[in-house]
Amino acid sequence: MSEDDIPDDREARLAAGMAAAQQGDADAYRFVLHQCVSIIAATARARGVDAGRIDDVVQETLITIHRARATYDPARPFLPWLRAIASRRAIDSLRGQERHGRREVHDAFAYDTHADPAPGVVHELERRDDLRHLSAVVETLPESQRQAVRHLALEERSLGETAALTGRSKIALKVNLHRGIRALRAKLAGTYDDHG
Amino acid sequence: MAEWSEEQLIDRLAADLKPVRKSPSASLMAGLWLAVVVAISLFLALVSDVGSMLHRLTAAPDMWLAVLGSSLTTILAAIAAFQTSIPGRNPYWGLLPLPALAIWIGFSGLGCLRDLILPDSEPATIRLSMDCVFFILGLSVPLSALMIIMLRRTFPLRPNLTALLGGIAAAAAAATLLNFFHPFNVTASDLLLHALAIGLIVGCNRLLAKSAYAPGSGR
Questions:
Q1: CB distance B1–A60 less than 8 Å?
Q2: For residue B80, what are the CA distances in angstroms to A152, A172, B72, B181?
Q3: Ordered structural domains, chain A, with CATH
Q4: Pick from A111, A163, B80, B160: most CB atoms within 10 A?
Q5: Model pLDDT for residues A122-148, shown as the tens digit of each residue
Q6: Low-confidence residues of chain A: pLDDT under 70
Q7: Would you list which residues of chain A are within 8 Å, Cβ to Cβ, of chain B?
């Protein structure tokens, strides 16, 4: 049977096919289900189901037809019975879509600004910039403070190692480190104020 | 969904096909259920004082109109419940019991406002009202269970509506049959307890019936 059959004829064939299916005629049943597909899809479209979900509605409806086949009365028209089931499953799909939409929000800004758990390339470049800037500022310190800051703070050497390297006493190194850090803080604050 | 193509699904469904016994018609099922209600009422008529009941009901118009309303609600809600359980039937069947429901609720409420004490009756006390509640619950539960069992032969596409109508039918039947054993005047608290019992039955029907109906009928 083709899609071009006149509706009355189609109705009669489907009703007869479904009545045969109720008796266990698998071929008649296969014919009826095949014919139902286009009618279900049209019903779902008319109900406003998205094109991407039409197939789901068709399959849900076919399964429902299978479960509800005993409720079809061959003395009555088949198409209203079919359309009632298809409409219901289309509405179920629309409700499911609506529930899904309520649960999941689209927030492009949050997605774009979400922090990457691992340090990225940008983070590494910023860190190198900061280090370069700090080294430049350290270079402006007096020699004694510069040595203390570089060896003790930046290179994380011990007081003993630094004293051996520079020939200065540990007390002098501590004083120079303290002064150097205070000077650096003042210079960097000025730098950021200028930038800011 | 869409695990298979339509072709595969149709093949699977056709392979799973077994002959089925056509569901009885909605009218036949409603008739059978109502026949059970009539059988119960005949039994209750045998063990109660029917003359006294008729004397009481005809003493005030609101009494017999309320009983008429609950009786009609039983019949129409049962018909509507079975009709809405068959795919393709007009969902407006669900509105069928509304006029009778309005008569029942309206005239039951009017009874509370009436000053006249009916013959062979006394105002209901809380203890008597609780007896009424147990009667309504005791009769509604088997009637609801029977309806749910019968509705399993159908496939309600709107299970909540069908369950609501089934609950109304069972509760209205129980409230109607209560008149055999209600030799006291309705008070507001009595009516409120009746309404609570009926509401409980309707609510339980809605909660239970959805899962009790044929698999996949409700979503």
A1: yes
A2: 90, 100, 12, 28
A3: 7-103 (1.10.1740.10), 122-195 (1.10.10.10)
A4: B80
A5: 677 777 888 888 888 888 888 888 888
A6: 1-7, 104-112, 114-122, 190-196
A7: 21-27, 29-30, 33-34, 37, 55-56, 58-60, 62-64, 66-74, 76, 80-85, 88, 92, 95
